[in-house]
Specification:
335 residues, Rossmann fold, five-stranded parallel sheet, binds flavin-adenine dinucleotide
Length: 335
């Protein structure tokens, strides 16, 4: 990075964009952050509803990592509430069993049934394709254990939630004299000439007007409701094993720091779909077994883009958890 002060545009106030904005602001550059949405924090956006319950607007975001550098960086902007995520699956007979599948779960359902009960219906619902057609690295993200460990992220050394929520953490990151945030502003290419550099988290295929064809994404419709019941679920998230279109339900109050309303509880049920059926909300890049989507992405990544650097899940067409998005953004900001 040139050491003289530059005018920089960051497209997207998600974690990727705001981390780059903060790093470059601290180097003395003048940063404008725009987002077409009316809020910061991207898909990690959360809010407290009228029942005093914190809801993650785009589905449950659990922070988990073994990357000390990322934890140290974020800890400048938030305190943490320790939380180790546990998930149960609801079987057709009404019983709840631990996910990812551990010894107890496979003893209950029978090892030979694990694929049929937990993986096949989920893959079809979540990715819209058969298990056999999915890139194996995705299903390997949910390993089968032969012990009684109940943790969803058994290997990560740091698991916690930001004490005041993700939105407040992101606001703290953006609170710097050299950063100016404009919400409800969509990017257009004419902006490039006004800035020395542009860091862009918009979908890379959209930027290049789909000249190599569209990159597919899965999306999710979130159905949120509040009921006059103190508590419903055994764990914050319960996955469904049935063949209905819904994958899981989250009861927000069970997460620490997410409210303690004694009479009401808020739940969100997730219904995966193609992004074209959800107002072009792109959540998950689709890793097909044949690697065609990745090959198509590489065509876009090889296009000349003058002063524009692509960042984040949609800019890099990569399945990034928050800690990975932050780590990637920190590296890009150092270049
Ligand atoms: C349903 C779901 C659950 C998840 N759960 C977890 C989890 O439990 N743990 C975890 O670590 N990670 C989780 N993630 C991943 C996490 O959301 C991402 O790692 C993180 O949000 C990455 O941030 P980003 O900045 O790359 O993208 P985003 O958060 O998508 O931010 C990109 C921003 O760019 C804006 N934008 C796009 N195009 C334009 C444009 N043309 N003009 C202006 N603005 C534009 C968008 O409005 C958006 O706000 C989950 C993601 C989803 C979708």
């Amino acid at each position: 990075m040139d050491t003289s002060a530059q005018k920089i545009l960051v497209v997207g106030a998600g974690l990727s964009g705001v981390v780059i904005a903060r790093e470059l602001a601290e180097q003395g550059h003048q940063i404008t952050v725009i987002d077409k949405r009316d809020h910061v924090a991207g898909n990690a956006y959360d809010y407290v509803n009228e029942f005093g319950i914190r809801v993650h607007h785009y589905g449950p975001h659990l922070f988990h990592t073994s990357n000390d550098k990322v934890v140290a960086w974020l800890s400048r902007f938030t305190e943490w509430l320790p939380y180790q995520h546990k998930v149960k699956a609801l079987l057709s007979d009404g019983r709840h069993v631990t996910l990812p599948v551990n010894k107890e779960t496979s003893d209950i359902v029978g090892k030979e049934n694990v694929l049929d009960i937990f993986f096949k219906p989920y893959t079809k619902k979540m990715w819209g394709i058969e298990l056999e057609d999915l890139d194996p690295t995705i299903s390997q993200r949910v390993p089968i254990r032969d012990d009684l460990n109940e943790l969803y992220f058994p290997n990560d050394t740091f698991q916690a939630l930001p004490k005041e929520g993700y939105t407040q953490m992101v606001k703290n990151i953006l609170a710097h004299d050299n950063i100016h945030v404009q919400l409800g502003v969509a990017y257009n290419k004419a902006m490039n000439v006004e800035y020395d550099r542009v860091f862009n988290s918009m979908p890379i295929d959209e930027y290049f007007e789909f000249k190599h064809g569209p990159l597919p994404y899965r999306s999710i419709k979130f159905h949120t409701s509040t009921v006059p019941i103190p508590k419903v679920l055994p764990t914050a998230t319960v996955n469904f094993t049935h063949h209905e279109p819904f994958t899981r339900v989250t009861e927000w109050k069970i997460l620490p720091g997410h409210g303690n309303n004694p009479a009401f509880t808020t739940l969100t049920i997730e219904e995966p779909c193609d992004y074209k059926d959800n107002d072009f909300e792109r959540y998950y890049p689709v890793k097909d077994g044949g690697g065609e989507n990745l090959a198509r992405y590489r065509l876009y990544a090889a296009e000349p883009s003058s002063n524009v650097t692509f960042i984040g899940r949609c800019g890099l067409y990569a399945y990034l958890d928050m800690h990975q998005a932050i780590s990637s953004a920190l590296s890009i900001a150092c270049q």
